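Quick log. Single chain, no ligands specified.
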Amino acid sequence: MRFSYRKGFFEADLIVKERVTLPDGWNPQTTRLELATEFTQAPAPDATQCAFASSDGATLVDDALIDFGGMMMVPGKAFSINGTQDALTGPKNNALHVLKRWQKMNGRQFLIESVAWTEAERHMQSLPKASGIERKPFREAGVGRDLPTTRMAVKNPEPVRVARLPYNEEGFVIDYITVVTQPTWTFQSGQTYLVPNSVSISSSCTFQAGAIIKFDRLGAIMLSGTISCPPDGSVFLTARDDTSIGEDTSTGALTGYYGNPYYLQLYNMNAAVLNRMNIRYAREGVFANTPCYSAPQTVRDSRFEDCEKGVTASISTMTLTNLIFCNTPTQYYNYGGSSFSVSAVTSNCNGYVRFTTLTDGKVLSGITNLPIEIVSGDKAFEAISLNDGGDPVKGLAFNSSYSTATWDTAGTTNGQYTLTPVLYFTDDVVVFGPTNTVTVTNYVWFPNYYPVAGNALRVEVQTIHANGTWSMNVYDDQNNLRSVLNGTVDENGNCNLDGFPGPGFSLSLLDGNGEQLPEAFWVLAITTFAAAGQRPPTATGRQTNFVERSWWGQQTWFNVTYQQIYQPSSFNGQNLKQMLVDVYLAAKSRYPTLSQAVQLGTETEPWRLLGPSEWSTLAVSLTNDFGTRNLYYFGHGSAERFGYSDDTNQQINIPDLNRILKNALDPLKGTNGHPYRFVFLDGCKTANGGLASAFGIPKGNVPMNEFIGKRGIRPRAFLGWDKNCTIGWGAFDQQHNTFIGSFFDKWRNAVDEQGLPYGVQRAITEANPVSWSQRPHLTVHGYSGLFFIDD
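-> predicted structure:
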């Protein structure tokens, strides 16, 4: 016997040193190897019982969890140690489940632990044979157990002697662990915790984002109650000698693996979900041992880095999804009796993305649903795109969970496309998925996919029926047929209208008085007819164009606002404020005598976003008046929002903008209800996602003719950064400060060689400091030649 006592638990091991053989006539299939431990003083425990079927069909009962209130006994394992082989056959580390029974016999209390003889025998095959001894005659087997006589402790024990050398053993071990428990525990955000030994949390455990839990080589946490994990952010579990995060708890160099042998053990009768874990340097990150093969255990949205094993299990049903195993050779391991359902895992340390149904040579047509597999681990990604070369494909929309994209392939030209999924993270990491070459084939398609109408409705249609003819019905938003058009198809498949230079044509949406027609959207239903010898004889297509209410000739006012990321009275805080004052004065100069030219703040105190109240006021002000169409914002940002990432009361995201401005590409939702003329979101990676579209500004470089000439709508531009823009946390980046002031000065005042005002892109190019390294990362969507004043 080997007894181990450390702070937090007591452990007893029975080490079988020699190969044990069964007496003649004993049936190995019905024999169990038992260890009986008597407890002379113990309260009556609560036992969680499970039923198992033995190899011969008998029903066995296991007291899987024996709870004494302040202490509990958890499942033990039988296994081979050191040089002993696990078995003559079978995988390494194939530990056996040990059944436990807490029983009262003859007024005495015993813990009876057992393993099936056939399983134990495999592990003992490599042990030396038992030494020759004089065998006593066997007694016949009885129905009950023969209990040993109770022995009293000696009255005058000698002092315990300590061995001079470490005790190394070989053999086959049956163990149980008695763990001192904590009923409830909350690992709080920003706190560093040290787990020097094994501990148990039996009732409920809460992990808050930002908590840092460090483990000694003997440290482990068993969770047997409810588990609460954060919906976002990360919980960090790492080695005590890891000095890269949290408070310094190190006792030496960071080497090897930590945990005894795991960091976390899931031991739950009910279903449990462990997520948002960032686990480093663990011998085993998470181990599941579920009593009675009960409810499934789930590990998801987590990262395992520099671990020996990620997730291990014994007698458990496991679900693993969205996991990164970075430098972790064994992603998951079955110690026996477990099943694993695994999806969306990767060994790529940065994550992974793919469109699961895209394959080389695939032919796409019409509206195609594309399932997406994203592996981001414990990190939240900001945006995803599907690029052809370096540009996102047109007509692609994502569902709210980004699990599926819908591609209206009729919004792009027929042909081959080399598609690469791209995943953007908040820490400036960009992940490229596998590239596939596909072919888009439609009988009818709409190549200029920007279905927005204003004072005019743009019609651009192509078909496979080159040199054929076409007919089009035009329906209003009440499905009334308003017009029927006919024309010819040129040699390139363009549907042209006689009298209009092609390709394509525009239809006026103005009445006899020059006023815009009131319809919210228009539907084009086209049929093309084949020329002689073509197949099929006809083809059809349909496109909906939503109408943007005219705001030509309207004064367009500004909002100028910022987050105060420095102390207001500090040197950096004053520099930042002065930059915003300069922007405010430039914005006001559009209408110097108009009080509402800049909606919020004053010339000396621009609108500072101090808390939820100021953010709420800004949200209202975005549509405070029909004329509010310009915005400059400085502060935190991402591809999907501007403001703080972890506080929805201090941010405005794309769903917020869709609700406020109603610029989502859906006619039934009041599309382009309040488009903006100019937006500059001076925050990290604001150009990468859908913020431009949420402000009613199309992404990419859009020539002025697409706005005015073809659709009769006002030109517009969006400025944002395509990466994290460094502004300086210790000190405000003066080059950023200089650039913003110079950009607005040149955009407002400078003229080119022909005497025309600078457009947005020219002002960016000419702004000081000329050598500023961040300048190339400022991206313009929409019309890059937009003037400062175009009323």
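The chain is about 10% helix and 40% strand.
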